[in-house]
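STRUCTURE:
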């Protein structure tokens, strides 16, 4: 649906009529991607990161974090168990941990692909050769949020990182034939509504196959501890407008939304979202991958999370997707 920047800004600002926006996004979701909700099993395999993003709880400068990384065997075993629970996509997410070299990751990807699942990587910025090798090893999709398209803000929040480089990585990933997922945080300090409108237009122009939108939640052990953080409603409106702009893409109900409200993901599923990414990380690691505080389900098991979200989805009259749940272009 074509929308001008001014129209997007109006929709993002209009809190009083947001229910109409949610309803419209829900209709478009139903019409273009149907009633199936695709589940992705999310494995948080390392919280070691070379970057120092001001918003992120696992930034390298946070020395209060107890760091972990799964071994190759542990990671593959976690994936095997998630597949046994019925997941058809495994998402491998971590900080930018260079212990996982190209060869190591390729071995892991090949092993997980043998379980007959789609594999998504979410491991940040790598070289062209690495992205190419991961793709050849069988990785199907890649998730990397641009976080914000306000370059000045980006450079304040992600010191030593380059917005242009991140953007070029996204172009490379797309060119290599991955399904591309990107997205933003909403409610970053100094982020304006106009800038969020620019972000949405950026994601549309980039032609993403998936767009993840979540509220920024201040972490107490970061320089942004005292900031206000994003509101659930603004995050939901941003997500709903994304659905209007790109009717046929995959849009997750993000974990950060549920961290602000116990029904956050269900609210999102009723306002344009069609994907949920339950955490399938096991044991202590779940707590230690603390991007932001009050992360949900840190004491639960993967099996519990799978059945809990399954019930919630059924209660709103939707079905769990039975296929890989990849992007399908609307005809
Ligand atoms: N290293 C990978 C994965 C990053 S963690 C990469 O660079 O892509 C996944 C996402 O969590 C980030 O892209 C960011 O959008 C989100 N995130 C990090 N800190 C957050 C916070 N404090 N509140 C909300 N979301 C956060």
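SEQUENCE:
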């Amino acid at each position: 649906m074509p929308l001008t920047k001014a129209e997007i800004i109006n929709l993002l600002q209009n809190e009083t009529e947001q229910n109409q926006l949610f309803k419209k996004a829900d209709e478009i979701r139903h019409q273009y991607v149907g009633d199936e909700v695709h589940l992705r099993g999310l494995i948080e395999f390392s919280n070691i990161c070379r970057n120092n993003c001001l918003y992120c709880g696992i930034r390298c400068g946070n020395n209060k974090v107890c760091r972990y990384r799964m071994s190759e065997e542990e990671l593959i075993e976690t994936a095997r168990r998630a597949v046994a629970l019925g997941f058809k996509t495994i998402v491998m997410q971590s900080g930018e941990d260079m212990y996982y070299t190209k060869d190591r990751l390729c071995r892991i990807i090949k092993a997980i692909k043998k379980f007959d699942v789609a594999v998504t990587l979410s491991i940040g910025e790598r070289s062209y050769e690495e992205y190419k090798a991961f793709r050849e090893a069988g990785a199907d999709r890649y998730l990397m949020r641009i976080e914000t398209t306000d370059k000045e803000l980006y450079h304040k929040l992600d010191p030593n990182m380059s917005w242009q480089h991140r953007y070029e990585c996204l172009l490379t990933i797309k060119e290599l034939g991955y399904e591309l997922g990107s997205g933003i945080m909403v409610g970053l300090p100094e982020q304006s509504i106009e800038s969020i409108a620019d972000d949405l237009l950026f994601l549309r122009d980039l032609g993403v196959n998936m767009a993840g939108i979540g509220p920024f939640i201040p972490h107490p052990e970061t320089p942004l501890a005292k900031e206000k953080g994003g509101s659930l409603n603004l995050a939901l409106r941003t997500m709903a407008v994304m659905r209007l702009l790109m009717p046929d893409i995959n849009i997750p109900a993000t974990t950060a939304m549920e961290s602000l409200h116990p029904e956050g993901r269900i609210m999102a599923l009723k306002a344009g979202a069609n994907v949920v990414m339950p955490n399938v990380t096991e044991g202590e690691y779940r707590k230690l991958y603390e991007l932001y505080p009050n992360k949900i389900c840190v004491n639960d098991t993967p099996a519990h999370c799978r059945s809990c979200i399954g019930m919630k989805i059924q209660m709103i009259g939707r079905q769990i997707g039975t296929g890989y749940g990849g992007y399908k272009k609307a005809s």
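REMARK: The mean pLDDT is 97.
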